[in-house]
Design goal:
By secondary structure, the chain is an alpha+beta fold. It has 3 domains: 166 residues, Beta-Lactamase (2-Layer Sandwich), CATH 3.30.450; 120 residues, Signal transduction histidine kinase, dimerisation/phosphotransfer (DHp) domain (Helix Hairpins); 146 residues, Heat Shock Protein 90. Helix content is 51%, strand content 16%. The longest helix has 56 residues. The radius of gyration is 53 Å and the shape is rod-shaped. The chain starts with a helix and ends with a strand. The structure holds adenosine-5'-diphosphate (ADP) and magnesium ion. The site of magnesium ion has 4 residues, from helix 9.
């Protein structure tokens, strides 16, 4: 399936609205075309029938003119009788009650005479030799047939007969009337259908849009919910599909109702998660808090014993020293945990202008005092730079970064601290030329208890919480922290929002 995806991309899919409207219009067009074609065909057939009836009676009359006799006709009544003996096409055409446009051909055994009445002027015209030839081809066919005579005449319906006196004759009537009427009907049906299609398309689009509006509201709700940051912290999922769109008797209503039920469940699940997270955080905060006092006592008593002036065996002195240093380390750990638990709670930070210049000067001079084997370099801009934030927390960020640059590098390493304002952000970088951050640690560097192997054994007070605190504090300030490390150059970069005056 995944393989086929790229080839199917290029055309954007049809919306439901477009599909419905086009289906309705397409079906209506099909019905219109069918009705139109059937109507025209039926009309044409019935007009042709009528023409054939007319033709048959014209043939009868012509037969009478040519010297045969129809029942009831008296010869004296017949104006054509004067031509008796030499029948021609003219005697047919000028006969009584002949329809306009009539065509006649008479073969009296020796010669052919032809002619037709021009339906415009009523004059009798001759046929061309070619037309005569075309008609002659049909003389032997029984009943009426259609012949295309070309030129001005076009299609003619013709019928061949033999008069009582034995003269072969043929009469024809033009089909142009039939064709014109059929064409007119086709044109009318086409125009009416087109107008109907346009009206139907407009109404269908309107109806579909109206019908889909509830679906749009459901979609809007789903989109709003999808944009909520649900992955962490306190979230309230109050957004619901409006009650009017949750009627289970309609399709869209069922979608709306299902979405609402799902939101209800998700809300409950989030609340439960929130509750348990809060409990864990509370527990960590309480435990850390409770541990502070006994740790302080342990440290106090061991220090007291060591300094009591009593003569102690060297082993005991060593053990007391270890107890003291380990309790210092554990106090640090407990403090870090407590701080992280508080940051997790999302407790409001102080948001005041903090002079980063002063803060860096203090922090670097502290680091310098703690790490005499390192070279410390501070690069400050002329203008003081202030960020918005919580001073003690920001101090902690810098302290942690400087401690790392001191503890995880060798003696003689140069550490450069730089401060600058870039756009609306204050940018602090801490760069050292130490060994760099171990490859396997980089992806989890800012996670809790992530630390390099070497730090674990050096007993440098490493907890793996330093950078987790940095990340949490910077995030709480809506800032950014990133690291760029290769052997020989490690740079931490912290961005904080500048204070605006
Ligand atoms: N400047 C640095 N140079 C080399 N490694 C570093 C540096 N900063 C941090 N690290 C590595 O990142 C790990 C995590 O740092 P951190 O979260 O502060 O924990 P900790 O310092 O308590 O070990 C450290 O254990 C160390 O291996
Ligand atoms: Mg650290």
């Amino acid at each position: 399936m995944a393989k086929r995806m790229p080839r199917r991309r290029p055309r954007s899919p049809w919306t439901l609205q477009r599909r419905l409207v086009l289906t309705v219009v397409g079906l209506l067009a099909l019905v219109s075309i069918t009705i139109g074609v059937v109507s025209v065909v039926i009309l044409r057939a019935s007009l042709l029938d009528r023409l054939d009836v007319q033709l048959a009676s014209a043939a009868d009359r012509s037969g009478a003119v040519l010297g045969g006799d129809n029942d009831g006709d008296r010869p004296g009544d017949n104006p054509g009788s004067s031509y008796f003996g030499s029948p021609t096409a003219n005697s047919i055409l000028s006969g009584p009650a002949q329809p306009p446009g009539l065509l006649a051909l008479v073969y009296d055994g020796s010669s052919i005479t032809t002619g037709y009445t021009d339906d415009q002027s009523g004059a009798i015209e001759e046929l061309s030799a070619q037309q005569v030839q075309q008609l002659a081809d049909h003389v032997n066919q029984p009943g009426s047939v259609t012949v295309n005579l070309g030129g001005e005449l076009g299609d003619y319906r013709v019928q061949a007969e033999t008069s009582r006196s034995g003269t072969l004759y043929l009469v024809g009537l033009p089909l142009s009337g039939v064709a014109a009427t059929a064409a007119q009907l086709a044109l009318i049906i086409t125009f009416v259908s087109l107008a109907g299609l346009i009206v139907v398309a407009i109404i269908a689009a309107w109806v579909v849009r109206l019908a889909l509006r509830p679906l749009q509201r459901v979609t809007a709700t789903a989109t709003r919910v999808a944009q909520l940051p649900l992955d962490q912290g306190e979230v309230s999922l109050d957004d619901r599909v409006p009650a009017g769109d949750t009627d289970p008797r309609t399709e869209v209503g069922r979608v709306g109702a299902a979405l609402n039920r799902m939101l209800e469940h998700v809300d409950l699940a989030l609340e439960a998660r929130q509750q348990s997270e809060r409990k864990v955080r509370q527990f960590v905060a309480d435990a850390s808090h409770e541990l502070r006092t006994p740790l302080a006592s342990i440290r106090g008593y061991s220090e007291l014993t060591r300094r009591s002036g009593q003569e102690l065996p060297p082993d005991a002195i060593h053990a007391l020293g270890r107890i003291e240093s380990e309790s210092v380390r554990m106090t640090g750990l407990v403090e870090d945990l407590l701080l992280l638990a508080r940051l997790d709670e999302g407790r409001e930070l102080e948001m005041e202008p903090v002079d980063l210049t002063m803060l860096l000067v203090d922090a670097v001079s502290d680091a310098h005092a703690a790490g005499r084997d390192h070279v410390w370099d501070l690069d400050l801009p002329e203008e003081p730079i202030e960020a918005i934030g919580d001073e003690p927390r920001l101090r902690q960020v810098i302290t942690n970064l400087l401690a790392n640059a001191r503890l995880h590098t060798d003696a003689g390493t140069t550490v450069v601290v730089d401060l600058a304002a870039v756009g609306d952000r204050a940018v602090i970088t801490v760069t050292d030329n130490g060994p760099g951050i171990p490859e396997d640690l980089r992806s989890t560097l800012f996670e809790r208890f992530a630390r390099g192997d070497s730090s674990r054994f050096r007993g440098t007070g490493s907890t793996g919480l330093g950078l987790a605190i940095v990340a949490a504090v910077v995030a709480a300030h809506h800032g950014d922290v990133s690291v760029d490390s290769v052997p020989g150059r490690t740079q931490f970069r912290v961005e904080l929002p500048l204070a605006t005056h």
